[in-house]
């Protein structure tokens, strides 16, 4: 039995439900962020990130910074591209659009390629754009939490390398790392940014990222200094390298309690082959998608190959409104999220299915949620045609 207080199952696309041991790690006694105990934990945690991202290249550089997933955009925008340089932003929803806004804030010149609502830009149009202009970076949201659309990272890197091999490929993996496969080295990625509170299963407050040796060389060869102080790779890289080498170092104070929780979460994840974890998320996602279809409902991500294994965005039937269905779900002990994509925000809800709700065989969160959805829609007057 869980030691947590009774509460509704949190099945939004993050924060997700957390394991007892992870939460208990947060109650670690206070300690110095440069003391030997914490330095050892932080160093081990950085090394475990290499396993999670599947990189064995010593030139790859992990970062764990206090902040949300959004800080990852700043890390990319302030360090890997300079004012006036071009970025190709592949947008599949709200978060792709926001990444473009962040790049603009730092003086870069983003060009957006947008997929239709529920779809993604296709490789021929991406290759055409890359052949017409020189881009410093291509950014892609691996899973856009506003639509549940997943992008094909492996295929994207192949397309970019074919047309513009010098262009860096950066993925926003906030809603994909630890539930969708990411083979950092094998696929040739240059950067993946993520956060602690989604499939990694650690409370919110950590910006987590991995950058390739090529990306780090791009940073070192900048003509201008980074445009941020806190998000500067110049300031953070030696800190991360020292910690991973188990040497105390200081630029700004990390959160020892969150790092302990992340260490516990990564230890749990890496205790089993990652392939098993990815397969389990796929199986549960397929089950959810079938149940949604059986209810006669439409999924926002239109093609099966574009549908994330982390979450499902579900169009509500005619006559059923978000303010009607979400409270009914909550009364049955299930929390879903409302819509976020501005074009369809009032028309759909979002069901997050990742992390411990999926991998812990003692949890019934997903079955409970599917039953609650069926009952709640019926209470709203919906009957399948």
Automatic annotation (TrEMBL):
Keyword Transferase: yes
Alphabetical list of SUPFAM superfamilies matching this protein: PLP-dependent transferases (SSF53383)
Residues with N6-(pyridoxal phosphate)lysine modification: 198
Top enzyme category: transferase
Keywords, sorted A to Z: Aminotransferase, Pyridoxal phosphate, Transferase
Residue intervals of the Aminotransferase class V domain: 44-345
GO terms (BP aspect): glycine biosynthetic process, by transamination of glyoxylate
GO cellular component: peroxisome
Domain of life, per lineage: Eukaryota
Coiled-coil parts of chain: none
MF-aspect GO terms: alanine-glyoxylate transaminase activity; L-serine-pyruvate transaminase activity
Short name of one Pfam family: Aminotran_5
Cofactor(s) the protein needs: pyridoxal 5'-phosphate
Annotated signal sequence range: none
Positions annotated to bind substrate: 350
The EC number(s) this enzyme carries: 2.6.1.44
The keyword Transferase is assigned to this record: yes
Family per record: Belongs to the class-V pyridoxal-phosphate-dependent aminotransferase family.
Protein name in UniProt: alanine--glyoxylate transaminase
């Amino acid at each position: 039995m869980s030691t947590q207080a009774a509460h509704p199952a949190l099945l939004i696309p993050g924060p997700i439900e957390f394991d007892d041991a992870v939460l208990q790690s947060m109650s670690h006694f206070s300690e110095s962020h440069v003391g030997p105990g914490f330095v050892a934990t932080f160093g081990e945690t950085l090394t475990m990130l290499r396993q999670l991202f599947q990189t064995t290249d010593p030139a790859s550089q992990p970062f764990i910074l206090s902040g949300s997933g959004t800080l990852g955009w700043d890390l990319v925008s302030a360090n890997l591209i300079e004012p006036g340089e071009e970025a190709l932003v592949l947008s599949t929803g709200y978060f792709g659009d926001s990444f473009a806004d962040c790049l603009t804030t730092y003086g870069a010149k983003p060009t957006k390629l947008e997929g239709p609502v529920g779809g993604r830009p296709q490789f021929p149009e991406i290759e055409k754009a890359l052949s017409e202009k020189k881009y410093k970076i291509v950014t892609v949201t691996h899973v856009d939490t506003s639509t549940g659309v997943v992008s094909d990272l492996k295929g994207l890197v192949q397309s970019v390398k074919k047309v513009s091999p010098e262009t860096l490929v950066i993925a926003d993996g906030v809603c994909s790392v630890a539930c969708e496969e990411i083979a950092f080295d094998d696929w040739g990625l240059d950067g993946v940014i993520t956060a602690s509170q989604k499939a990694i299963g650690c409370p919110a407050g950590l910006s987590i990222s991995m950058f390739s040796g090529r990306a780090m060389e791009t940073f070192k060869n900048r003509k201008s200094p980074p445009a941020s102080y806190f998000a500067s790779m110049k300031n953070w890289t030696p800190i991360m390298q020292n910690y991973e080498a188990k040497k105390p170092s200081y630029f700004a104070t990390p959160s020892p309690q969150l790092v302990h929780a992340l260490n516990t979460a990564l230890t749990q994840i890496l205790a089993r082959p990652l392939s098993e974890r990815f397969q389990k998320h796929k199986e549960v996602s397929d089950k959810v998608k079938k149940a949604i279809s059986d209810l006669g409902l439409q999924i926002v991500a239109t093609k099966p190959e574009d549908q994330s294994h982390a979450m499902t965005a579900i169009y509500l039937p005619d006559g059923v409104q978000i303010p009607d269905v979400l409270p009914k779900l909550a009364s049955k002990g299930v929390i879903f999220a409302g819509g976020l994509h501005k074009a369809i925000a009032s028309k759909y809800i979002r069901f997050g299915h990742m992390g411990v709700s999926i991998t812990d065989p003692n949890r019934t969160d997903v079955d409970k949620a599917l039953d609650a959805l069926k009952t709640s829609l019926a209470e709203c007057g919906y009957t399948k045609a």
